[in-house]
Predict the structure.
Amino acid sequence: MSDVSSDYGQMWTDLGLNLPAHCALLQAIPQMYSAAYLAQADRPEGMKYFDFVVSEIHGLRIKELQDHKATGGKVVGTFCLYVPEEIIRALGALNVGLCAGAEWAYNDVERLLPRTTCALIKSFVGFKLGKVCPYVESADLVIGETTCDGKKKAYEIFGEMAPVYVMELPQMKKPGDMTLWRAEIDRLVEKLEELTGNKLTEENLSRAIKEVNDKRRALQRLNAARKAAIVPISGLDALLAVQVAFYDDVPRFTQMVNAIADELEKRVADGIGVAPADAPRILVTGSPMAIPNWKVHDVVEKAGGVVVAEEMCTGSRYYDTLVSEECASADGMLDDIAAKYLDINCACFTPNTGRIDDILGMAKEYKADGILHYALQFCTPYAIEAYSVERAAHAEGIPVLKIDTDYSMEDIGQLSTRVEAFLEMVK
Ligand code: BJ8
């Protein structure tokens, strides 16, 4: 991994980062990455691209964002899968995911938020308070959404530190909810037209839909290879690909992931894999895992299991459905975008039986021996929904391990013991 700190100092200064704190963060990531990623055996060659992306996580991509801004372009930060990136892209802005997966400045955060707030929220507020995230500092607008109560209320505080716009997301999927959501899509278009000075057209929207669909198709290919009896890529590597999808350049990402998918398809044909054929196959489901949160996958795979799929926002919920490419009018395309996004099955919705169907369907498709339900501590929607997931999985004879954890490494010993016992039981 290259030492990037010397090359980008001026850029980070211009972004107003707290340089000593930022330096400490940048030193921690290579250590974590090395322990989780570079320690793996038999990785696909194509993952070298992601090694490079992580080594440049606050370098090259940030430079690209600054270059885009220098020509009058805008950068838009998002926190949730429900914010349609096709619209941001169509209007010439670059979209970056801002969810953070590491503890930062918690003492300061806990002066603003209750201690019993999930790690994902504490982390993005901490990154902002600590001035260590060049993505959030690059954003001309941050788009929030009314999903869980924690996020909704945190955006009010976050909005005092950054320009925040909140989309109203319904919590049910009745016809009236679609009407509300479709109006919210129009409101978003208006807001982004005002921000970018560009107009949404059939041409720019259909091009953006196709580009984002291509990105999702590439991820579908990569993940389809994980259904093989000998799994050609680790769960850790597959997770990283989706984490990076939220901020990388779209055409470049698509090309690199398609190249990895080619390699994986060949590996499957040649019977080459990252784990023995009898390694316990685990489906992970639950709260999102923002970069650099690799904890659960690392524990499972170091214990001899292999994660074959993720039913989560940093997993299948991100790539499994596409926006229709059939429609010719901009209005019709926005209808299709509204429909695709409202179809996502987040635990913030009630009822959310679609998620249970997805989990059971994926467990079958990926031949999972067990399901690991992961809820971030204090993430009430997923922690409560774990009960229904477990009941439905048990009815199908699939063992479930429920884990509540956060970003700290304090529980790693206990977690490993529970995972090891689970892996022994499922095989
Ligand atoms: S679509 S999962 S990205 S809301 S972990 S902040 S739910 S208390 S992130 Fe999410 Fe959109 Fe849903 Fe996906 Fe709240 Fe839970 Fe924290 Fe969470």
Notes: The two ends are 37 Å apart (CA to CA). The pocket of Double cubane cluster is lined by residues 80-82, 118, 120-121, 147-148, 150-151, 287-288, 313, 344, 346, 348, 376, 379, 381-382 (CB under 6 Å).
